[in-house]
Amino acid sequence: MWTMVKLAACAAALTASVLTTSAQTGTVPVATGQGSAPAPSLPTGSEPAVDVQPGERAADAPQRVSQTAVPATIAFIHNKHLWILDASKADAVPVQVTTQGEAEIAGWSADGKWLLYLLYEKEARSSSSPAYLWAVKADGTGAFQVDERPVLEHPKWSPVSRTFAYLVAASGADEDRKKLLVVAEMAGEKAGVVSTQTMELADFAWMPDGKRLLVSVPVASDRPMTLRLIDLAGNQLAVYPLTEQSNVDEDIYPLEATGLKVAPDGKRVAYYVWMNAASLSNDGVPIQILDLTRSGSKPVDIGSGLAYPQWLAWSPDSSLLAFIDGEDRMATHNKRVMIADANGRVIPAGQPDKVDAQPTWTAASPYTLYFTRGVETYFEDDPENPKVPGQRIWRRSADGSQQAVTQGTDKTADIFPTLSPDGNALLFVRLDAAEHGSLYLKTGSEREVELLRHVTGSVGFYGNHLPAWISVFWKEQKPH
Q1: Nearest to 417 by CA among 361, 478, 348
Q2: Which of 15, 53, 120, 201 has minimal CB crowding within 10 Å?
Q3: Which stretches within 42-122 are classed as H helix?
């Protein structure tokens, strides 16, 4: 059983030191020469939690509400800045990491010692605002810029080590369609490059052993849409054509596999088929599963939906894939949770007039699926209210029964369900406005406890609430 670890700790004064992105900070020794502007310098997390940004009310700063000890380290966003809370210490307060630009959480290392995040100089996801890759320790100190060049999309941690991979634009006039795949690892207080490979690719995913990568290669006139299995040195180990031939002469055609989600046993991969028309793809694309164990296996269509990898979730035993089915770019309407077995047989699990999102499984058997559910509605630009009022966290048990897990009023909505390894504790964000809420804890049949107040973030593209506002590393990793 998951037990609360209540630690009595005296507040220690944090050393106020600022690391810059020079050789002293341990940046990855990679070539620059891209003509890009340097990323803004960041503090090392030594600011006290009472720091208030210009124009911000003191009462709006993040507040630890409950002293309940939770064996987890929680990264979260507040007013576009990154904060970290060591919730395992009952008297710990949130530590501010960034004070400039706009931060976006990428995720924790496998051992929870390091957090990767992106820093935008201007508005996040703006075409004119490059993203720079940073790392920070779990206690909020030692932040440093990993690479001087802007990165493309999110970096991805190895599932078993402190190794991670990310993409930057390839240099040279003839490299318009190619990207540089960088594999690096945390070593001591800095990151070092393991390998770099220039290739044409759309997306990649780690294999469960942490020694190989599955790479998505877009269609071209001389090749079909393809997945390739490579080692960390870039050597090709296997090739998986996803179509029989190139179809680039057609007006609309499948371009690339994206949002790759490899099953925990490494035998199958789920992904979205992005089309060559972005506007069309934003309203939904095919979802497929491919068997990686059989040469010449064909993709299996299981549905269609919005191309968010966060909406694909394999059960820990790799037997089931939960996904969100439904077209139209609005995340608040016509989206249903579905479950596919390893062979592609689909079990509908949605309900009429309801909208679902954010599926996640318990780590312990019998595997239970958690997800968000509310009354579907058309997306409206209303900053005062949640996009799906009354949305709660739901649970689907192994026997197929479903019930709401959280409770609240129609003035609130619950998002980002995050389960402890044994499934006995649930962390989630309760919205009281479109872009503001609190982090709550629920354990078993006990009442919901407000743990942290003033968590903020973006409603995302048509209400998808992405990128995620929180990232949780559970210090008790093994399910009981």
Answers
A1: 361
A2: 15
A3: none
